[in-house]
Structures are given as C-alpha cells and as structure tokens.
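Kindly inspect the following:
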Amino acid sequence: MNGKNGHVVFLGAGNVATHLSLALFEKGYHIKQIYSRREETAKELARKVNASFTHRTEEIVPNADLYIFSLKDSVLPEIIRRMPVTRGIWIHTAGSIPMDVFSDSVRKYGVFYPLQTFSKNRKISFSGIPICLEASDEETLRLLTHLAESISGNIHFINSEKRRYLHLAAVFSCNFVNYMYDIGSEILRKEEIPFDILLPLIDETASKVRTLSPFEAQTGPAVRYDRNVMDKHLHLLENEKQKEIYRLLSEEIHVRHSNS
C-alpha cells in the first residue's frame, strides 16, 4: 500500500466501517469498494465515499492494497473463508478476535482497533481516538502506523492477548455503563421526569476519573452500605432483574471498599 494512493476495500457497512471509511476518505484515501451482506447498506455507505459496492463475496475486487474487515465477530471467519484471492493486506477492527484469524488465508495481515463507541448518525472526530495496532510483520506494521497517524494522534501497539483484556475493560466502562443510563432513563420516564436532569451528574462522574482513580471517585449508599436507603430503592424497583443488578452491584462496591 503506497500511502494515500493505495486502494482500500471495506468489508462491512456498520458503525465502525462507516466512521472509519469516512475518516479515511476525508483524508484523501481512495475507498475502492464497500461489501456488505445487505446490498442497501453497502450502497448507502459507498455513496458517501464514492466507492463501488457489492453484497456478494465473489464480486469483491482482488486488486486492492488494503482490505478492512469491520464485521460482527460471529460473521468474520465465514467471510474470510469465502474471500477471493487478493494481493492486499487484510486487517480487522475487532477488539476480541486474535490477529492470526487471517494466518491461513493471507501472508500480510494485522489489526486496526479503534477504541471508541460509534453510532452511525453521530459524527465523531478520530483525532483523539486510541487506535491499537498489531501486524504480521514490521513492514505491515509501518504501513498501518502511517494509516493510523493520518487520522489520529493516539496510537498504541497492543498484541492480541492484551487487546482481549482491553476490550473486556471497554465493555464494562462503556457498554454496561450505558445500560445503567438506560435503566435510569426508564425509571424517570415512568415518573415523567426528563432524562436530561441527570446529564450534569453523568458529566461530572465521567470527568472525575480524569483526576481521580475510579476507586477514589466512587460515592453512593453502597460504599457505606446504607441499608435504609438501599432497601427503599429496592422497594421502588418493580423489575426483578433490575433488583438483582442493584443488589449485586451494591454488594460488590461495598466489599471492594470495605477491603481497602
């Protein structure tokens, strides 16, 4: 791949593929083709980056310089098996899949994992997003580093084993936290209280861990194990699963802080 003159094929048209292809396109990279199992999603993204599109693996162009697989973890091995022979580097963007998923299919391969939450309709700048790289060889790593540095100033070299733990930490720190927001939103909606009343609290909670460790920033009734408050909260919850989540989290917070 010769810098921005190289041709890039994206396999996938979901959240990560959409944002990453747009970021590279805006930096002058030539996006040659978009593949998606759903023709309409491939067509929609291809239109945004002036690319061709297909929903058939046998129609994937074989002469691109870089193939970026941004697919569901469960789908990736199947698509790899169905890929035509190509001349380019293959990389994936997943947090929990090892790099050697490509080892039986192609000589040069790697990982380009942007550590961020993406939603298609929310614009986001790549400039500060951590991009975690791994490659089959030094030459490929140099090429991926150049690619990453063209869109972000936050580059990390992390192998497959450590990336698994990074992804696990990200799920706790992002996906599970967002589900807590969803529970809070549901509680407020039933009482006709707007969710945005929580936004200053959410902002401060996130901001605190820039200067304090998450352990130091922890507050609330579970830290001191205030059973009076906790029992009242449990009485208000109607959903048994949510009650169990509340109990489990409260117990874990209390144990962690009482052992400090």
In short: Strands lie at 7-11, 30-35, 52-54, 66-69, 89-92, 109-114, 131-135, 155-157. The chain has a mean pLDDT of 95. The radius of gyration is 22 Å. Residues 160-190 form the longest helix (31 residues).
